[in-house]
Amino acid sequence: MIRELKWDSNFFNKRIAKLEIKKDEDKNVFEEISQEYDLTYVFSNFEIKALENFHIDTKIILSKSIFKPFKKALNTRIMIEKPECVKEFENEDLYELAYVSGHKSRFKLDSKFSDEEFKLLYRKWIDNSLQDLKTIVYIALINNSIIGFIACKLEQRSANITLVAVDPEFHGKGVGKLLIHNLENYLKEKDIKELYVATQSSNLQAIKFYNQIGFFVFSKTEIYHVWKTK
Question: Which contiguous run of DSSP H or E holds residue 32?
Answer without folding.
Answer: helix 29-32
